[in-house]
Amino acid sequence: MFGRLLWRLLQGSRGRLIIALVALISGGAVISSLLNLDLDASRKLTREFRRFGANLVVTPQRGFAAPQSAAGASIPGSEIAGSGAPALMDQNAAMAGIEAARAPEFVAAAPFLYVTARSAGTDVVVAGAWLDEMPQIAPAWKIEGQGISARDDLAHCMIGHNVASQLHLAPGAALELDYMQRSVRLAIAGVVEAGGAEDNQVFVNLPVAQRLAALPGRIQLVEITAAGNARAISGYAARLAQALPGYQVRPIRQMAQAEGDLLARIQSLIVWMVALILALTALCVLATMSALAMERRNDVGLMKALGGSISRIVGLFLAEIGVLGAAGGIIGAAAGIALSRWMGQRVFHAPISARWEVFPLTIALMIGISLAAALPLRMLGKIKPAVILRGE
Amino acid sequence: MPILVQIEALRKQFGSVSALDGVSLSISEGEWIAIMGPSGSGKTTLINIIGGLDTPTSGHAIVGGTDVARLDEAGLTRFRAEKIGFIFQQFHLVPYLSALENVMLAQYFHSSTDEAEARAALDRVGLAARAEHLPGKLSGGEQQRVAVARALINHPKLILADEPTGNLDEANEKTVIRLLRELHAEGHTILMVTHDAAIGALAGRRIELAHGRLAQVTATTL
């Protein structure tokens, strides 16, 4: 009987209820599209920022101003080939510490040693690293020719775009590097175009640089790519710093800060907009419910006269409003996701994916707002059946 | 017959107006009582108090052993659901429920619904074929017959009818009176408010109210 009554109630006041439903659908659509944009934009931004590569750098406690690393970080201790005293770390100890602090945020790590060597009478910065990790550490690199996929490949190197131009080199050519009395001859696997300092560098696997610098087992820094939002990465950095006493773990601040600031601004804007839309939707439903409560005074008076308890009667009306809220939430959420995809294409020129967690959230919000807006139904409890039956 | 309704010194004030002023009477089970009197004499107030729709200012209205004056809101609701069947002059059907659902609504508030029983009640008042119709599609007489079926469905101890034929044409009036006679013959206790002396004469006893007081009690022979 409950379902039958509910259906009749919905049918009996469909004119008014359609107004409330339209308000709920509109509110639900805007809210779900904003939430979908928020969640997907966060994911997209995080992914976009990850495309810049490493976002943490581990150095010895002592650091120096220096040229830029593959990910744009300053390279402390890069004076190894110059006048300053080198600040070096033990490769095994540093990598073991990073491995020990491995967390879900960890994506990749690569140790670096820089040497300023000479080639064809020109100074070139030689970056020794684990080149097989470079797709994770510097994913934005464009490589002409081949990358180097094994860290024990000691016969090949990659050169920056400017080095290739300056020395008239191309993939397949040979490159000779001299440092102090040591020299090494390597075949060029690929030419790197990074749009930064890396275009001026030569990339070799770490043992080649260590042999050239006569610093076996020594490195200057470790670059780490971590996944997650700014807060997650900061947390991981803090845990890493605890696991690596005597080392300095720093976020590559510009990027993390920019990401964090942008996401915080977007989220704050969306939270305020969602709150505003919820309030407007509630007001609209409230107005409809007030009119409906007045309209149903007679029915409620009669139901009470027939022995209907107020909890049972109001429960019936609340169920009706709950159904309305759920319907508004379901239709609104579907419409909102379509809207966010359209907005993604039109406004951001990027596809926005449907985030399914938005569905239950929007439905719950719409049901909640409907029930909250059903406050005028409280007045039904005060109705005296005798007064209604007298026609007053 | 045992006493079903015992009214003692019942008073009801609406502000400075005294609707009932010390009414006392008793009604036995199976009686058909007609309450008569001019407008404003307190007829409807009396049956509203007996039916638990209103509360007295003072006095007692004991129905089936329950003093209605002592019941709280929830108690009155339960009392109405279990002990009283109402028939109103204005029919008072829920407009968006079918005839069948209007009858089942009373079952729903009483305990649980039984569609077959509700259909049988409508059949009894000659509306089996109109069970699925909304009140708006029924004539006044048909609506009142639905109200009679609704009043009967929970087998109440007492049927309270407030001007049950007041809005009906002659043919429908006869039908409703016939139904009330049948109910009385089956042993139902009926308390009926009416202005119509001819209908009042059908009751076993006529109680006349004037200015909120019992003016006259007349026994009639059916």
Summarize the structure.
The complex is a heterodimer of chains A (about 400) and B (about 220). Chain A has about 400 residues and is α+β, with helices and mostly antiparallel strands.
What does this protein look like?
The complex is a heterodimer of chains A (392) and B (222). With 392 residues, chain A is α+β, with helices and mostly antiparallel strands. In chain A, 51% of the residues lie in helices and 19% in strands. Chain A has twelve helices and twelve strands. Chain A has helices at 2-12, 14-50, 91-100, 134-137, 161-167, 206-213, 230-243, 253-295, 297-305, 310-346, 358-372, 385-389; strands at 56-60, 89-90, 106-119, 122-129, 142-145, 156-160, 174-179, 182-193, 201-205, 218-219, 221-226, 247-251. In chain A, the strands form two sheets. In chain A, strands 1, 3, 4, 5, 6, 7, 8, 9, 11 and 12 form a ten-stranded mixed sheet that branches. In chain A, β3 and β4 form a beta hairpin. Chain A is elongated. Chain A starts with a helix and ends with a helix. Mean pLDDT of chain A is 83; it is low at 63-85. By secondary structure, chain B is an alpha/beta fold. Chain B has one domain (30-55, 71-219): P-loop containing nucleotide triphosphate hydrolases (Rossmann fold, 3-Layer(aba) Sandwich). Chain B contains seven helices and ten strands. Chain B has helices at residues 43-50, 73-83, 99-110, 115-124, 140-152, 170-185, 197-200; strands at 3-14, 17-28, 32-36, 58-63, 66-67, 84-87, 158-162, 189-193, 205-210, 213-219. Chain B has a six-stranded mixed sheet with strand order 6-7-8-3-9-10, sandwiched between helices. In chain B, a hairpin with a 2-residue loop joins β4 and β5 (66-67). The longest helix of chain B has 16 residues, at 170-185. Chain B is globular and about 45 Å long. The model of chain B has no long low-confidence stretch (mean pLDDT 88). At the A-B interface, α1, α9 and α12 of A face α2 and α3 of B.
